[in-house]
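Example 3.2
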Amino acid sequence: MGKPKDGGASATWELDVKMIFCDLCIKEIELGNRPTTHFNKEGWLNLMKNFSEKSGREYDKVQLKNKWDQLKKDWKLWKDLKRGSTGLGWDPRRKTIDAPDEWWKEKLEVVPNAKKFRYCGINPELEHKLDSMFMGVVATGVHAWTPNQGIDHENVHEDTEKLDTTTDSFEDPLQSFDSISECSHFKRPSSTTSTGSRKKKIGSGFLRSQITQLVNSCTNISSGTNSSQSIIKALLLSAAIKILEQTTEAFEDLPLYLFSTKLLEDPIKREVFMTICPDRRVQYLRYCYENRDTTTA
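Structure, written as tokens:
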């Protein structure tokens, strides 16, 4: 294969080439060439050299960094789409989530960029590699969280396709994991309330990390008994209510709050509420409230 022109503007990345790139990134991480949140100079040099040898393509640092950023954006979006969907299947023909149309409709209303996954998702083998690159997956046979993987929603930054040529910087993937690209521009202004208990604000990142661990723990509970299923449902509802009560605007609007507590009993709507960008949660609740079926109220 020839060397791409003009910084790789027309470069293509087939699945096998993506796999090679991911394997090499994981290798550099394991070698300690990302000592903090960035690849060091040695890591970048190794990536360029080894990628050229393995793929036959001579891509420079800018091209490899841009590919990393693109993979990370797709991975975040895919995880946002899938999160909480442990009960759904996989469609091997379309290579995406096998879910009812209602599920897709609910999801795509709040995560419109995920529509590209409607008929073609991320290859499971590639997803596993991306997990290792961006999340840190322990080798237990399942995707498990380690104690240092809490995510702070309040400090999320949007990925950028631009490379800082003045440093060997590498944006921290954990800082970006829990945001949706189009929501990252919006930051909820801090609010204060007169109630003392409301001043004990729990960071949304802390809540999300706890909920993620909760969901993973739930999936390890035997699903063979009705009591286990009841426990899981109760835990997930409790976690959703905790998020609701930390959503100040919804908490202080009593009719909306009471409606939302009932709404969150619906598994699909609860899943959407828990996975969307925090800055969009109140809008989602109001949308459901305004479009509720008043005939069955």
